[in-house]
Write a structure and sequence with these properties.
With 271 residues, this protein is of the alpha/beta class. The chain has 10 helices and 16 strands. Strand 7 and strand 8 form a beta hairpin. The N and C termini lie far apart (42 Å). This is Lactose phosphotransferase system repressor.
């Protein structure tokens, strides 16, 4: 069992039981007490739980869950959004995929293509795409955030600033009509803002659970995005607000196997 999977299980146990002891975790996960202590320390720093003497307890507040655990959440909606997003990418395009689980779903669609370049700050996305020799994968380097498998920091920013992308696909922690698009981690949000500035077309991919939510760190105003792709359960009031401010939306139906968006609500610019 790898670190990401093990930490996801720890988070799931804490959420289910509200508290866990180190002894219980060592038996359940079949690892040493030192490994558990290290996991708890990292998860505490990430805000996913609170480390206490002898174990950990549930942290109150609105925090993101571990990466692997989130990938299975609302998976059908993410797949439908990803199919619509992938259709935008053409031969020889350079694409930025932000860290996140919806962008990972986009990578699962793009992995079938050849002749494209993918820039990403997410190690899971890079690892997925690298086996396809027809795709050029660019990692900008930087400090690795263990809980998410993403890279950030001055090295990431300096290298990313030298690149230009045709398409930038961005996930988020929240889409709010007043607070705009927000996310949980300040360092990764800084990378997202820089990638937005270096992308010709900027696409927001977010399932319905992100709407009406405001996370801690501002990524961008709503009208920064050239297109918002979401699923059919997204609230009508925010979709209407997007239309009012001139932001096109693609609303896809997760219940259909048809890869084409089930409903399209666009402004004058169809992309």
């Amino acid at each position: 069992m790898g670190t990401v999977e093990r930490q996801a299980r720890i988070v799931a146990m804490v959420r289910a039981q509200e508290s866990v002891e180190i002894g219980e975790l060592t038996k359940t996960l079949d690892v040493s007490r030192e490994t558990v202590r290290k996991d708890l320390y990292q998860l505490d720093r990430a805000g996913l739980l609170t480390k206490v003497r002898g174990g950990a307890v549930l942290t109150s507040g609105n925090h993101e869950t571990a990466y692997v655990a989130r990938r299975t959440s609302h998976a059908a909606a993410k797949r439908a959004i990803a199919r619509a997003a992938a259709q935008l990418v053409g031969p020889a395009d350079t694409v930025f995929l932000d860290y996140g689980t919806t962008t990972y779903a986009i990578a699962e669609e793009l992995v079938q293509l050849e002749g494209i370049t993918v820039v990403t700050n997410a190690l899971p996305i890079a690892n997925l795409l690298v086996p396809n020799v027809g795709i050029t994968v660019i990692l900008p380097g930087g400090v690795v955030r263990a809980n998410e498998g993403s890279v950030y920091g001055p090295l990431t920013e300096n290298n990313l600033a030298q690149l230009h992308m045709d398409w930038g696909f961005f996930g988020c922690g929240g889409v709010h009509r007043t607070n705009g698009v927000t996310n949980h981690d300040m360092f990764e949000t800084a990378i997202s803002r820089l990638a937005i500035a270096h992308s010709t077309k900027v696409i927001l991919v977010a399932d319905h659970t992100k709407f009406g939510v405001a996370a801690q760190n501002k990524t961008a105003e709503l009208n920064t995005f050239d297109l918002v792709i979401t699923d059919s359960q997204a609230p009508a009031d925010i979709l209407g607000h997007l239309r009012d401010i001139g932001v096109p939306t693609d609303v896809v139906d997760p219940s259909t196997s048809d890869p084409e968006p089930a409903q399209t609500e666009r402004g004058e610019d169809s992309q």
